[in-house]
Amino acid sequence: MKILVINGPNLNNLGSRDSSLYGTKTLNQINDDLLNLADEINVELSFFQSNHEGDLIDFIQQNTLIASGILINAGAITHYGFSLKDAIIDSRLPVVETHLSNIHSREDYRRVSVLESVSVGQVAGFGWKSYMYALSLLVEYLNREN
Questions:
Q1: N or C: which end of the chain has fewer CB within 10 A?
Q2: Is residue 133 annotated as part of the catalytic site, yes or no?
Q3: Is 22 part of the annotated catalytic residue set?
Q4: What angle do helix axes 129-145 and 27-41 make, rounded to 10 degrees?
Q5: Cα separations in angstroms, 69 against 13, 15, 75, 133
Q6: Catalytic pick among 52, 80, 99, 109
Q7: What are the residues facing 44 on neighbouring strands?
Q8: In whole angstroms, what is the distance from residue 124 CA to residue 130 CA?
Q9: CA dihedral 24, 28, 14, 43 (to 10 degrees)
Q10: 58 with 84: CB under 8 angstroms?
């Protein structure tokens, strides 16, 4: 089972962003934690990060046929990325959306996710552990569906 782990704009700067919202771990550290969990649950991960919506779409389109699901933190694109949403729909892959901060308790515009309606679930507000929970839930979902 292969899971695409996709990160959007500014997540490459984790570790130096506002630690009260995003914690102190870097994206590489989070990816390492995900790899450790993936080894435990026998899952292969493919990581991708970009600050550009089109690059995220290209990655999804190029990897749809070899993946079983998508774990995504689209960053700010979460709130307006309708072309990313379309790419997710076209992939026909189950998606779990994740966020480090609780987007539902932040600014009004951050409370809206255009990806939410095409995701099997959303994990937000648990810092770096949001990724771990999201991966576990996605794999559990895939195992149940198969």
A1: C
A2: no
A3: yes
A4: 30
A5: 25, 27, 19, 15
A6: 99
A7: 2
A8: 6
A9: -90
A10: no
Selected catalytic residue, list 22, 79, 80, 133: 22
Domain boundaries, the chain: 2-145
Residue pLDDT tens, the chain, 146 long: 999 999 999 999 999 988 888 888 999 999 999 999 999 999 999 999 999 999 999 999 999 999 999 999 999 999 999 999 999 999 999 999 999 988 877 878 777 899 999 999 999 999 999 999 999 999 999 999 88
Looking at 3.40.50.9100, 3.30.1330.10, 3.10.20.30, 1.10.3810.10, the CATH number of the domain 2-145 comes to 3.40.50.9100
Q: Six-digit token pair at 74?
A: 């689209």
Which two tokens mark 58? 């290209």
Q: 96 by DSSP, 3-state: which?
A: strand
